[in-house]
Design a protein that fits this description.
Chain A: Keywords: Signal. With 528 residues, chain A is an alpha+beta fold. Chain A has helices at residues 3-17, 26-29, 51-60, 108-119, 123-128, 153-159, 170-173, 240-249, 263-268, 298-307, 310-318, 352-362, 378-393, 405-411, 459-471, 475-492, and strands spanning 31-35, 65-67, 73-75, 78-83, 89-94, 132-137, 142-147, 190-192, 202-207, 231-235, 254-255, 272-275, 282-288, 325-326, 368-374, 397-403, 425-431, 495-501, 505-508, 511-512, 526-527. Classes of the chains: A alpha+beta (528), B mainly alpha (313).
């Protein structure tokens, strides 16, 4: 019996069969016990892009502006902003009463320093920054951007969720962007209790009594961030079956990323709620190394894409329930303004036989295909094994390498031929947020050596991307460019979109106020 | 004896030096790059390189090794690449749960396995012997995580006698401490019990054939004193050896057990550090494990003199 099968069965029986325990009392009722998606190892959301660190940062830090449920950017720490008539001067004003956890007032100079550190690491802002002539403090509550040309996307960058701009005290924000900050002082709704931090076991936050939330109702990440709990305690439980049992027994209140295998069992437990809280799906991709044979030939890449049926991949990752996943045969996030399937014919073929014929016509000559699968990432591993199966069925010369994630991310940087430690195919996943617009769509970039691993070189894609940055504010133009981009990407097929799956969360029924958001945040949540 | 202990303690120094060299070299040549883990998917190669430089990972092998050894000689195990916390602090945070788990497992295993082995040897060929041996085979065959899940299901979820997961520090009371450790200790101890019980049985069978046992019986000594005073004492040397060797088994098993029962011990710290390539933490923990193992062997050697007065150092 495989370990995963066994744990699924045991946790399943447990989750289904155990009645709900008595409700917590007193202090326990004001503490939310959370099983996070990963271990919180670093505390600096600029230094690392780890999602778990970003979630920690949402507790501790505040943002100037944030994205609401409709994807619009709304003021958060900012009272508002004025844009000059020519669009070249943006003046932000901070709300009154904002204070850091150490008691110091939040000043405009803190915002300027924080933006300056963050923009050095955020790829989106790096694209826009050449348009910025100056970022300067005006007084304690106001700071100003002066721009060389109109840059409406700047607001989107400041309010983004993918790599949020969190505000730290100036003295901390002056740390080099490539060094980790040594203090965790924010102005957000919760304070981080460093003394209780035991990486790999526990991280704890306490309510920031001095926090002044906005008066508006919570809406996505915008609106009032009201801390309703005295403490938020994360316990790192690496074993999914143990996490399932802890939820069933009421030893934990909230599980951020339950394993898909365990969802049916969790749903059968009357004490547990399982719902889709995150507003974006997780998208899988299959990436080719375009520098080395055989995938330096676009026709061979397209031939492989013809054999792909996204539904097979998504079932392997998220199970048979079609409500848990969705087919998305284009490069942009489905159900967003730029989503389209122009030119996605190869991806809609779904035929091994036709793919075989196309492969032969493309001149495949038995070159070795090295596919690296990360055994310690169940979802990405499942995607990798599906592609391996397709490659085998196509009669290609496959070498499947099972490695851990740490090995994979090092080896994927190699541009060498496969015989000298290179690779042919890797897989990864990404939040739908990061694939919605060309400006930060990592996998779409095709600027050769500077592109993401696989290093595709398609000048037309880069030209269209630059055009979108220039004209993206116009919906009709933006749409036209997005269709052209999809067509180009599908023609070059340097990566295959594999659809998306939903990652639900689970919480005890006595947890109240859980709302949909693009990130896991804990304000407005309480316990009855 | 004292001179022997001093000699053995001094002998740990070259052993530790070899372990240090081996661990450092292995990590140096092993694939993986913490800078790439930190930088994330969206980082450019320049970003990764800058992080690598800031962590000092771009320095030559000898420089890095020399600096690490120099720090260790000054009692500094370094700082975790990810958490920015001193490795010594991280080990300190994790040592109590692992030590507690090992001690409880050891006590539990020895107190169950030795009598089992003795009784099996005494009742050799009977159903009792067969049951003990059957249990031993089962203990060897069933993986620790399966035993762990079964125990958690029965005793935590069905009967609600014990918690599913977690660890409570000893300072918060004996009862909550032991409550959290019973299931992991039984799970981890299952292989260990099987091992000790089999060795005890085999050694006891050999000893029970000796002339002096026959003489003791002829003198009218009762069965308990024959088994536990005469026979077991003479069978103790191989049993103690196996108990000592088994500590390495426990260290390995603790990794899985700590994961199944969410115990924040050194095993999980090691696995997490390996997966992220947190070199200072891996090096610190492996050095610690090696030191403990060398120390356990020394204690075992010294225990021989207690059980067999013919052994002299």
């Amino acid at each position: 019996m495989e370990r995963r099968t066994f744990l699924g069965a045991s946790a399943g029986i447990a989750a289904a069969g155990v009645s709900a325990p008595a409700l917590s009392q007193g202090a326990a009722a004001r503490t939310l016990r959370v099983i996070p998606q990963a271990n919180l190892t670093s505390l600096d959301p600029v230094w690392t892009t780890a999602v778990v660190t970003r979630n920690h940062a949402f507790l501790v830090y505040d943002q100037l502006c944030a994205t609401d449920g409709k994807g619009e950017v709304k003021p958060q720490m900012a009272e508002g902003w004025d844009i000059s008539q020519d669009g070249l001067t943006w003046t932000f004003t901070l709300r009154e009463g904002l204070a850091f956890h150490d008691g110091e007032k939040v000043l405009a100079k803190d915002c300027v320093a924080s933006i300056d550190r963050w923009r050095r690491r955020d790829p989106f802002t790096q694209v826009l920054w050449p348009n910025v002539a100056e970022l300067a403090t005006l007084d304690d509550r106001r700071f100003r951007f002066r721009l060389h040309k109109r840059t409406p996307l700047l607001l989107m960058a400041l309010g983004q969720t993918q790599f949020p701009c969190f505000i730290m005290p100036e003295r901390i924000a002056r740390t080099d962007a490539f060094q980790q900050v040594r203090e965790t002082v924010g102005s957000g709704p919760f304070r981080f209790l460093r003394d209780e931090w035991n990486p790999g076991q526990r991280a704890v936050w306490a309510k920031n009594e001095r926090y002044v939330p906005r008066q508006e109702a919570v809406d996505g990440l915008a609106g009032g961030r009201v801390p309703r709990l005295d403490r938020v305690e994360w316990t790192i439980i690496t074993d999914p079956a143990t996490s399932g049992s802890a939820m069933a027994q009421g030893e934990q209140d909230y599980w951020e990323y339950p394993l898909h295998d365990l969802l049916p069992m969790l749903r059968r437990n009357r004490g547990v709620v399982v719902e889709q809280r995150l507003t974006d799906g997780t998208y899988g991709i299959c990436r080719f190394n375009t520098l080395q044979p055989p995938f330096n030939n676009p026709a061979i890449r397209r031939a492989v894409a013809m054999a792909v049926d996204q539904r097979d991949y998504l079932r392997a990752v998220a199970g048979d329930d079609p409500a848990g996943w969705g087919v998305c045969e284009g490069v942009f996030t489905c159900d967003t303004p730029l989503a389209n399937e122009a030119g996605s014919d190869a991806l809609k073929t779904h035929s091994i036989e036709r793919a075989k014929a196309a492969l032969q016509a493309a001149g495949y000559n038995g070159e070795k295909v090295v596919l690296i699968a990360p055994g310690d990432y169940p979802q990405i591993n499942a995607l990798s094994l599906m592609t391996a199966d397709i490659i085998r069925r196509l009669g290609m010369n496959l070498e499947l390498i099972s490695a851990d994630w740490g090995t994979l991310i090092q080896r994927r940087a190699s541009k060498e031929p496969v015989e000298r430690g290179g690779w042919s195919i890797i897989h990864t996943t990404s939040s739908g947020q990061s694939l919605a617009l060309p400006v930060f769509h990592l996998f779409l970039r095709a600027n050769g050596n500077d592109a993401w691993f696989g290093w595709p070189d398609v000048p037309e894609v880069e030209r269209l991307r630059a055009e979108w940055v220039e004209k993206g504010g116009d919906p009709a133009e933006g749409r036209r460019i997005a269709e052209a981009l999809n067509r180009e990407a599908m023609q070059s097929m340097y990566y295959i979109p594999l659809g998306y799956y939903w990652q639900p969360s689970a919480w005890r029924r006595n947890v109240t106020g859980v709302f949909r958001a693009p990130a896991t945040v804990f304000w407005n949540i309480g316990k009855s | 004896m004292f001179a022997y202990v001093v000699r053995r303690v001094l002998a740990t120094i070259p052993v530790m030096a070899i372990v240090a060299l081996f661990v450092f070299s292995l990590l140096y040549i092993a694939p993986g790059d913490p800078a790439a883990v930190i930088a994330g998917d969206q980082a450019t190669p320049d970003d990764v390189e800058r992080i690598r430089q800031s962590l000092g990972l771009d320095r030559p092998y000898l420089v890095r090794f020399g600096s690490w050894v120099w720090d260790i000689l000054r009692g500094d195990l370094g700082v975790s690449i990810f958490t920015n916390l001193p490795v010594a602090t991280m080990i300190k945070q994790r040592i109590e749960p692992t030590l507690s788990l090992m001690i409880v497992t050891l006590c539990l295993a020895v107190s169950i396995a030795v009598p089992m082995g003795v009784v099996a040897a005494w009742k050799v060929g009977t159903w009792i012997d067969r049951m003990v041996m059957g249990f031993a085979v089962l203990g060897f065959s069933v993986p620790v995580f399966v035993v762990g899940y079964l125990l958690a299901y029965v005793f935590a979820l069905e009967l609600d006698w014990l918690p599913v997961q977690g660890y409570t520090a000893f300072s918060q009371g004996f009862v909550p401490w032991i409550e959290n450790l019973i299931l992991p200790a039984v799970a981890l101890g299952s292989v260990y019990i099987a091992l000790i019980a089999r060795i005890t049985r085999a050694t006891m069978l050999e000893v029970l054939q000796q002339d002096y046992i026959r003489t003791a019986r002829a003198k009218g000594a009762n069965q308990v004193s024959i088994l536990f005073l005469h026979a077991l004492k003479n069978a103790a040397v191989p049993i103690v050896t196996v108990i000592g060797i088994g500590i390495a088994l426990l260290i390995g098993g603790a990794v899985v057990t700590e994961s199944v029962f969410a115990i924040p011990g050194l095993g999980r710290l090691t696995v997490d550090a390996i997966l992220r390539r947190d070199y200072p933490v891996i090096q610190g923990v492996v050095l610690l494990f090696s030191f403990v193992y060398v120390l356990v062997n020394l204690v075992i050697d010294l225990l021989y003199t207690l059980f067999d007065p013919r052994i002299r150092y």
